[in-house]
Amino acid sequence: MAAPSLTSERPIIDVRAGRLRRRRRRVIAMSVLGALIVILFGAMLMLGNTIYPVSDVIAVLTGQQVPGASFTVGSLRLPRALTAVLAGAAFGVAGATFQTMLRNPLASPDVIGITSGASAAAILSLVILHWSNAATMALAIAAGIGTALVIYVAARGGESTGGRLILIGIGVGAMLDAVVAFLLLRAAVWDLSVATRWMTGSLNGARMDELPPLAIAVVVLVPVVVILGRSLGALELGEASATALGVRVDRTRVLLVVSAVALACVATGTTGPIAFVAFLAGPIALRIVGPGGSPIVPAALTGAALVLAADLIGQFAFDTSFPVGVITGILGAPYLIYLLIRTSRRGGSS
C-alpha cells in the first residue's frame, strides 16, 4: 500500500497551522485586553483630586489603613471602578450575544430598545413613584425583560425574524424615549438631577452596597452564556444549520435571550443606560481577536475596558466632568450611522 504523499498532507498541515495561528492570536489579544483592564482599573484608583501612589492603593486593597487613601480609594474610587468593570462586561456580553444570535451588528440591547424600557421604568420609579433604589432597580429589570418580550413576540413569524426584531425594537425604543421625555416634564426640579443618571448612564455616586446584584448577575449569567457559546456559533449559521448540527434551537435561544436581557437590565439598573457599550464591544472584540471561537469572553473584556477608558476620559480629559454615557455616546454614534448607511445600501441586510 502506497504511503500518503507530502502533497496530499499539505492541506491538513495548512489547516492545523491556521488554527494554531488563530488560537495564538486569540490568547495574545485576550491577555492584552486583560492587562489593559488592570492598567485602567489601577488608574481609576490612583487618579483624582489627590493622586495616590501604587503602594498606597495596594495597601488599601490589602486591608491596611492609609490616612486619606482608605476612604478616598476604598469607599469612593473602588466602587466606581468595580462598577465600571462589571457593567462593561455585562453590556458587552449582552450585546455580543444578540449580535451573534441574530447575525446582525445592529442587534444590541441599547439599539433595539431594551435598555430604554429599563430606563423609562427607573425614571417612573424615581420621579413619579419615589421608590427606593432597590425597588427602582427591580422595576427597571422587570421592565427591560418585559420590553424584550414584547419586541420578541411582535417580531415572531416569517423568514426575517432578526431584521424585523431590530426594526420593531428601534420603534419601541423611540416610543419609550418619548415616555421618558414626558416623565421628565412631569418631574419636580429636584428630581431631575437623579433622573439624568438614568438618561445618560453614569458611575457618579457608585456605592459598594449597590454592587451585589450586578456582581451576582455577571458571575452567574456570563458562564451560562459562555457554556452555550458553541451553540451560539451554530445559531450564527442559521436555524436550519444549527438544527442539523444537533442544537436545540428554541431552548438555546430562550436561555441566551433571558441571560443577555437580564445582564443588560441589571447593568442598566445599576448605572443607567451607558450608551453603545453593548453595541460596540462585540465588533471591536472581533477585530482584536480575529475570526473563530466564541466572541463572549472577548466582548466582556472589551466592554469592561471601554467603560473604564470612557470614564477616565469623562473625568479628566475636559475642564468639565462628563458622565461616562456621554463619552461612549460620542464614540458609538458614528459607528451606528456607518452601519445604518451600509445596511441601507445593501437593501436592509447588514
From TrEMBL:
UniProt cross-references to Gene3D superfamilies, sorted A to Z: ABC transporter involved in vitamin B12 uptake, BtuC
UniProt GO cellular component terms: plasma membrane
Pfam families assigned to the protein according to its UniProt record, in alphabetical order: FecCD (PF01032)
InterPro entries recorded: ABC_BtuC-like, ABC_transptr_permease_BtuC
Cellular localisation: Cell membrane
Transmembrane segments: 27-47, 81-99, 111-131, 137-155, 167-189, 214-233, 254-281, 322-341
Chief location category: membrane
A molecular function (GO) term: transmembrane transporter activity
Keywords from the named record: Cell membrane, Membrane, Transmembrane, Transmembrane helix, Transport
Record GO biological process: siderophore-iron import into cell
Membrane topology: Multi-pass membrane protein
Assigned protein family: Belongs to the binding-protein-dependent transport system permease family. FecCD subfamily.
Protein name: Ferric enterobactin transport system permease protein FepG
Organism: Microbacterium terrae
Gene: fepG
